[in-house]
Amino acid sequence: MNWLNSEAFVLFDQHIIWSDMIGNILGLITLGLGWRRSLLTWPVQFLSGLVLFTAFYGHLAGSAGKQVVVMVVALYGWWQWQRGRGKADDGRITVRFAGWRERGVMLAAAAAGTVAVALLFQAYPSLSWDPWPDAYIFVGTVVAMYAQAKGMVEFWIAWLLVDVVGVPLNFANGYAFSGFVYVIYGALVLWGMRDWWLRSRRGSRPTLEGAPA
């Protein structure tokens, strides 16, 4: 599978490699499917992680290991959405805002996880070129996927926070396609967040007895 790490084309003097392009196109599709609350979002997310794992395995152990975690969370998301499917009026999952306790737990997990992973990357430099921002993006992605699996609107906010660091980091590390994709992620996240936000408000609106459905 060495072709995954070969150059696909050059864009704006940036060398685009096949694995970077394919994995992130699948990531974009995943985000679009997540916006539509389609169960397919998780198999596509798993496939994206598998492509990047195949590309990294053997020479970037840290990056390959991160994709394993992403694939595990994708399986968890699939299980959660399977359980929750059909509860909304359109036959898909319902969406909601997280409670304050849930938000606190996710923020604490994100902070502690970022510190722990960054220290691990610093202890083993071969795992990452930029320990702290890389740890922030990795842990933020896992937290976002967890919130998505639970149908929380905060999932989109977590993705925006990941984008803030992900765009410059990917360009700096030579992953230009990832950088361009993260910019598109930002636009999709804003649209998706608006859709989920409105759906959560409709879902929480009380229905008066005797009122038409």
Automatic annotation (TrEMBL):
Major localization listed first in the record, in broad terms: membrane
Transmembrane segment boundaries: 15-34, 46-79, 105-124, 136-162, 174-193
InterPro entries (alphabetical): NMN_transpt_PnuC
Coiled coil: none
UniProt keyword Transmembrane, yes or no: yes
Keywords attached to this entry: Cell membrane, Membrane, Transmembrane, Transmembrane helix, Transport
Localisation per UniProt entry: Cell membrane
Superkingdom field: Bacteria
Membrane topology: Multi-pass membrane protein
Family indicated by similarity: Belongs to the nicotinamide ribonucleoside (NR) uptake permease (TC 4.B.1) family.
Protein name, per record: Nicotinamide mononucleotide transporter
Organism: Streptomyces galbus
